[in-house]
């Protein structure tokens, strides 16, 4: 079957439009609503509208007063003039005199302090290779995890021989980005009671740009219908883990008068267990409902944060949707998203 290639839309010529167009990219109003200075005369050159989707190699503008930003490059024509051309598929973003392209889809770029959910790819000597949906796989050193007997004790050859008892291929974990190498490769650590191996839940994958950066990416959501509480790990890298809530060991430290270090020593064996706990059918149903809410939000291009999750879950309860796969139903998911957005506008 032959493939038909449709030609792109013609460039917008400001001279053929009305006076309010001003060269495709508005010069009188910036992205933040600021009014341009008096000396900024309207452009009458070939340009694209701000917010419009462009493809790689497509002309953004040939007006020399604009500066190129991320996702663009300069192209020189035969007559010696330069124009700004898009190198990505995305939307045009304008900040004062700077033009950038916001990619429609992109891979996660690690930053120090990010909470990520990853999967063990390979077990090496004194380290693990971890998939975090980045251009390079991350590394988790044996010295960067809690070990039985205390987090500060020296790593021995016995620990190296038993490295697979902590994490093996295919295991899921939640960790924090500790350092970045010169080539952008991330180094992780799990030296905290809230990090470690993941159990008792379900794994979801979304685009990294759909996770809104928040103060905390570990959420505990109370559910209805006898489901109890559910833990949600929103990895900045787009990997999400939804699981049955497990009480944090540090929660009862103050009541029992036990130090955090002592708790870590006693809990080390349980942290690396591969055995899932018993999960009631009610909890399983609510975990699935939350997963469907996340899929519905992603389909509607709504960024995921704590507020939208709570509003979407409330809307799903009001709809009384049954089953485990209604998130793939476009009509039902759209109703949930519309109801959640309406509630957010009221607040």
Automatic annotation (TrEMBL):
It comes from the Eukaryota. Residues 8-50 are annotated as: Disordered. It holds the Pfam family ECR1_N. Keywords: Exosome, Nucleus, RNA-binding, rRNA processing. It is found in: Nucleus. GO terms for cellular component: cytoplasmic exosome (RNase complex); nuclear exosome (RNase complex). One of its GO terms (molecular function) is RNA binding. Residues 111-191 form the S1 motif domain. One of its GO terms (biological process) is poly(A)-dependent snoRNA 3'-end processing. CDD domains: KH-I_Rrp4_eukar, S1_Rrp4. Belongs to the RRP4 family. This is Exosome non-catalytic core subunit rrp4. It comes from Orbilia brochopaga.
């Amino acid at each position: 079957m032959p493939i038909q290639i449709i030609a792109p839309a013609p460039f917008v010529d400001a001279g053929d439009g009305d006076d309010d167009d001003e060269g495709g990219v508005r010069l009188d109003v910036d992205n933040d609503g600021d009014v341009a200075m008096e000396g900024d005369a309207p452009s009458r050159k070939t340009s694209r509208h701000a917010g419009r989707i462009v493809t790689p190699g497509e002309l953004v503008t040939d007006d020399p007063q604009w500066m190129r930003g991320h996702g663009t490059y300069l192209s020189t024509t035969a007559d010696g003039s330069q124009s700004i051309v898009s190198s990505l598929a995305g939307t045009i973003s304008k900040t004062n005199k700077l033009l950038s392209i916001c990619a429609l889809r992109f891979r996660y770029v690690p930053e120090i302090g990010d909470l990520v959910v990853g999967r063990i790819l390979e077990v090496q000597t004194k380290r693990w290779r971890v998939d975090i949906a980045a251009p390079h796989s991350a590394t988790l050193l044996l010295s960067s995890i809690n070990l039985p007997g205390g987090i500060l004790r020296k790593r021995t050859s016995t620990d190296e021989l038993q490295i697979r008892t902590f994490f093996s291929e295919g295991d899921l974990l939640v960790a924090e980005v500790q350092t970045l190498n010169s080539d952008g490769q991330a180094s992780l650590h799990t030296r905290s009671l809230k990090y470690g191996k993941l159990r008792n839940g379900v794994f979801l994958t979304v685009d990294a740009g759909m996770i809104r950066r928040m103060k905390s990416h570990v959420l505990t959501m109370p559910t209805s219908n006898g489901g109890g509480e559910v833990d949600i790990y929103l990895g900045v890298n787009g990997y999400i883990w939804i699981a049955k809530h497990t009480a944090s060991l540090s929660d009862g430290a103050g009541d029992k008068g036990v130090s955090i270090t002592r708790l870590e020593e006693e809990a080390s064996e349980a942290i690396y267990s591969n055995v899932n706990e018993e999960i009631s059918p009610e909890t399983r149903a609510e975990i699935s409902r939350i997963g469907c809410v996340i899929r519905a939000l992603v389909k509607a291009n709504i960024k995921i944060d704590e507020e939208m999750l709570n509003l979407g879950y409330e809307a799903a309860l009001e709809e009384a949707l049954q089953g485990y796969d209604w998130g793939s139903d476009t009509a039902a998911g759209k109703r949930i998203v519309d109801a959640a957005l309406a509630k957010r506008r009221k607040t």
